[in-house]
Each structure stands twice: as structure tokens, then as C-alpha cells.
Amino acid sequence: MTQTQPQPGPIRSPIGVFDSGIGGLTVLRALLDQLPCENYLYLGDTAKVPYGNKSPSTITRFAHENTLFLLQRGVKAVVVACNTVSATCLDQLTLHFRAPIVGVIEPAVQEALRKTRTGQIGVIGTAGTIATRAYDRAVHRIDPGIRVVSVACPLFVPIVESDFVDHDATALVVREYLEPVKNAGVDTLILACTHYPLIKRQISAFLGPEVTLVDSGPATAAALSAILRRDGALSDGTGPSTLCYCLTDSHPQFRQIGERVLGRQVHDVEVITL
Ligand code: DGL
């Protein structure tokens, strides 16, 4: 790919966060909780969601376009708040672009390994994420003795994107996908899609309190915080943050869902073309 390489912005510049849609807001929430004085630019590629059923080459192209867009808008670091992208092409992004780029897989895996007592970990994600086996590899790099049970749950993303979370049908879909996870007896389940924390309550109701759910948001925010601190790139502003949102297509529920997830009003939503 030949393109002018934008430089990461100075320390008061925003942190860029992207996902295929609204799922990355769960990571943005964790960033706001842990780094409240930073400014943020969120990109939801709502014109192309879902990514989880696309081919690796298409996902990689989308990921390059998203990262380039954020860097051209002057962000100082990029959070890939999408497991499908992190699993498919995070290495390519970090090699290609100069800015710090943080994915969600390593932080979530480390968190799950800290939590498991039995060494049986479940992973649920999009078909794309599960097909890469990126989680299995990341777990086994650290501890080859862990048993990993992976299940693709492709209907969870449209349920969340359509704000269908509290519908009875969601409980049925949760049961259908998670029965094998329950039967496998895992004690820790990685929500390997940033949309899934939005149906955490339904997942937990089915699996029961003995299964610990790992949401990648807080662990990813902690990983970014450590990198910015190491690089002397934490904002010296006193907050509060400014938040801007870019979507590649209008999304009727974006503000409503965003306000629920972020616990604050959502303004400054711009529809852009990549
Ligand atoms: N939320 C994203 C993920 O973490 C993408 C889901 C999708 O677009 O299929 O994988």
C-alpha cells in the first residue's frame, strides 16, 4: 500500500479509537474511566459493519483506511477497538504506521490468565475472529497448558447494532451459542468482540455467576495508558475530555446507545466518507 505516512500528533492530540460500528464504545468507556483528561476521536465504520463475516483481505483494507483516517485527523495513538481487526491484521498495522497502535487481544488474554483458576478458558467472537485462532495462539504463547474453547456467535453483533438487547429473542440466541461453552465447564470467558459487553447481563444470566466474563475494554485502556506513560505522551491537560465521533454512515441508534454506554451526552457526530 503506498500512501503518505502521517505523523502521530503531539500529546494534547486526541486518541483515535475505531471499530466496525458501536462496539468500540465499550473500549472508549474504559478509556474515559482510566484516562479522563485525554481527548478522543471515535470512528465507527457503520457503512461496512459487520466486519466479522468479511474476508481477511477486506478486513485488512478497512483497517488501513480507518487507521489512516484517524492519523490524518492528527491522533497521537490508535486503539483498534475491534477484535476482528486485531485478530486479522494488527501486526500489519503496527508495521505499516508509525504511531502507537494498541489492539484488544493481548490485554484480554493476560486478564483471562490472571482470572482463571481451572485453566479452562472460553472465547466467543465473530466468525472472523474465531477462524484466525489468534486467541488460542496468544493464550498458548503464555501458557500452553490452558484449554481454550472457542465459539463464533455471529448474530450477537446485529442484535447489539439494532439495540435488540433486551428482546426475548436475545436470550434464545445466547442459549443456542453458549450451550457448548457451558457444557465445556470453562471458568473464564473472554468476550472477544467489543460489541458483546453490551449483552453481558444476558450472557452472565445464562452461564451463571461461577463463570467470570473478561471484557477487553479495561485491560486495553490499561495497556494504552502504560504505553503513553512510557513514551511521555500522556496529556498534560486537566480535562474534561473532548469527544468527537465519526461514522461512515448515519446510525439511527448511535446517540442513544452511545449515551447509555458512555454515561454522558453524545454530540459532535459527523458522517464521513473514507
Ligand atoms: N466489534 C467488532 C469486534 O470486536 C466487530 C464486530 C463485527 O463488525 O462483526 O470484532
Describe the structure.
The protein has 274 residues and is α/β, with parallel strands linked by helices. It has two domains: 143 residues, Rossmann fold; 112 residues, Rossmann fold (3-Layer(aba) Sandwich), CATH 3.40.50. It is 45% helix and 16% strand. The strands form two sheets. The chain has a six-stranded parallel beta sheet with strand order 4-3-1-2-9-10, with helices on both faces. A four-stranded parallel beta sheet has the order 6-5-7-8, with helices on both faces. Strand 1, helix 1 and strand 2 form a beta-alpha-beta unit. Helix 1 packs across helix 10, helix 2 packs across helix 3 and helix 8 crosses helix 9. The protein is globular and about 50 Å long. The two termini are 16 Å apart. The site of D-glutamic acid has 17 residues, from helix 3. D-glutamic acid binds next to helix 3.
Q: Which helices and strands appear, and what pairs or packs with what?
A:
Layout: E1 15-19, H1 25-34, E2 40-44, H2 56-72, E3 77-80, H3 83-96, E4 101-102, H4 105-115, E5 120-125, H5 127-132, H6 134-142, E6 147-152, H7 156-161, H8 168-184, E7 188-192, H9 200-207, E8 212-215, H10 216-230, E9 243-247, H11 254-262, E10 269-271
Parallel strand pairs: 1-2, 1-3, 2-9, 3-4, 5-6, 5-7, 7-8, 9-10
The chain binds D-glutamic acid (DGL).
Residues 19-21, 23, 49-52, 82-84, 126, 129, 157, 193-195 line the site of D-glutamic acid.
